[in-house]
Hints:
By secondary structure, the protein is an alpha/beta fold. The protein has 14 helices and 13 strands.
Amino acid sequence: xxxxxxxxxxxxxxxxxxxxxxxxxxxxxxxxxxxxxxxxxxxxxxxxxxxxxxxxxxxxxxxxxxxxxxxxxxxxxxxxxxxxxxxxxxxxxxxxxxxxxxxxxxxxxxxxxxxxxxxxxxxxxxxxxxxxxxxxxxxxxxxxxxxxxxxxxxxxxxxxxxxxxxxxxxxxxxxxxxxxxxxxxxxxxxxxxxxxxxxxxxxxxxxxxxxxxxxxxxxxxxxxxxxxxxxxxxxxxxxxxxxxxxxxxxxxxxxxxxxxxxxxxxxxxxxxxxxxxxxxxxxxxxxxxxxxxxxxxxxxxxxxxxxxxxxxxxxxxxxxxxxxxxxxxxxxxxxxxxxxxxxxxxxxxxxxxxxxxxxxxxxxxxxxxxxxxxxxxxxxxxxxxxxxxxxxxxxxxxxxxxxxxxx
Length: 407
Ligand SMILES: Cc1ncc(COP(=O)(O)O)c(C=O)c1O
């Protein structure tokens, strides 16, 4: 199977007919009648928030990812903030993280008044390079925050060992931002029970949605308790516990936030969780189809999968081999959009955002592997609701657009 057409077609960007009439987005949710029914039932119940669906969702989620505890949050960002707090990050501390991520991964370090230290990524997976992390570790390192970029698990064994060996300033914690990686496996184990804390997002483009929502999975009961308090103003008990025990008394024991996920959202999450395996299987099928189609196309580099990994494919980021093409990523991107293929770019390396440049003096050249990848990346549409026809449209549009630009 090859994506390249046998004869050159006029690109839509030059006035030709687009491959699709309507834009195919790069990601979108799938909601069915069972999801809607689950939400309606909660709306008719006594508890819209802090009720039984929260605990049920957390328990089922923990079992799904193989962790002892799961604590829900109002978003993946809030969950990252909770994890940074529970790791004890504060002013004077550093956390090492990747530039190849959504800015929330690094922002959670700033929320705690600590300093993000960016380490470069490995050229194949674009995940944190343990060698680079080890060069950046100092007595101030309190956490390593890895990201499972696009759904491919980070080098969790090596990073876990580096975090443990960080004895000078005490043991550092490994926080895994698995917002792309619900259902991914590393060394045959599901992500969620491997790092000290694993963070998930339930934004609509993810594998499971609650509208907005997030979760931290951990095997550590003390971390779980801190996370529960942090997401509820720092209060030592929850409203439902008090109602059931007939007590009014509560105390605020730390400075927390209202980061609670509602019962409405958790009911949707529970209903969606039942479809996770099928959704993952579909994403893996689409990824395999793309990779088979693009492997032999000059100018395209499909994502690499390491032997120890079974990715969850939140994204399908291809790289453009600029040496083999007559145009840059911008032109390929615009040409694909003109074909009504909703491509995207993940990510501008975080240290190069104006806020990080202006506030912390970050500059180009600090993370050369991530920066070079950024110039070449394009995310193709990837969501479990894609039909075979959608997938074929993407393959056809990519071949159509690349052909005239191959040197
Ligand atoms: C890697 C990564 N981390 C964190 C987040 C933040 O998650 P949320 O949008 O649920 O706040 C995202 C969001 O897409 C993400 O991609």
